[in-house]
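User: Fold this; tokens only.

Assistant: Input:
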Amino acid sequence: MKKLIFAALLALAILLPAQAQACTIPVFRYALEKWDLTRYDIFVYHRGPLPAELQKTLKAWDDAPNKANLDITRIDLDAKVAPKLLKLWEREAKNAETPWMLVRYREAKDDDASAWSGPCTTANLQRVADSPMRQAILTHLTRGASHVFVMLTSDDAELDRTVHAKLQKDLAVLEKKIKLDAPAEIDLAKLRLPLPIKVSLPLLVMDRGKPDEAAFVNLLLATEAGLDKTKGPIVFPIFGRGRVLCSLSGEEIDDKLSFVTEFLCKGCSCDVKELNPGIDMLMLANWNEIFDGMYEGKEAPSTTTKIAPLPPTTVPVAAPPPTTPTDRPVESVCFDCPIAKNWLWIATGFAGVLVIGTGAWTLYQWRK
């Protein structure tokens, strides 16, 4: 996914001239207000009746459909099972002791591995749906952060400290360097949340070995094939209501940090979420209630709305020292390079041009 994102955006930069934005609302803010999270399916495989305590837990989740972006399906292996679900069980958990659950992103392909797999217990259900880090991310996103960078630590503590210090410095520079559209040019009529519109880039650090975060770590590593084998720390930019744009590791952290930040701060020219890169995370958040509490009876949003300061984060930091990101005020004006509405088609077209050009050059050389 990562290579596709970068190739598509690079194609836009090459093929499309600068033009006026169709929408002046930054991508990060448009996503927060408009894009619902894609749901996850939790398949609970069991044989015969489920334990009473677990049945009570599952019913509680059933009775609160807006609590998180998940749906639970119970599958009794002693009864008739749909071929697709039976094939999934035999492929990923055939010898597992029931009750067992598989957590799958709804837009994943049939042959993609599940995002999480393990015993179905009350504790595991809670850890899959929520964790301290996700609540910290939620706090920042609902306080006006443009997007949150989560650094997943590695087994190299010294490298983690080095990358963390560099990230802090680079993000502080980007907060001042990146400009959004001027307040008068932003279409405030399309916004309903009384949050400041500014570039705010908090950095959080997540210990890969923390038990409470194990499920979230697996969900993040499942966003790209082979990501679990990546050496060194991995950085995830998360925006909107909990959408991961991509992952950055190794040299990409230096090379692409500004690139992805500018991408999310440009005016949003595509209102279809599926045409934009990224994968949604499983988040415990009732966004309708959160938004109702924000804007009921409030004045129209502006770029100067004052909000209470963020509470200190209690998320433990493994290698680097813990820090509490602060919101630093920055100027507001704009990027002139648009995000294409059909970025995937354009990237495909760009690839086609390269193929045709290569073929023509080969034919010329052969005739010569």
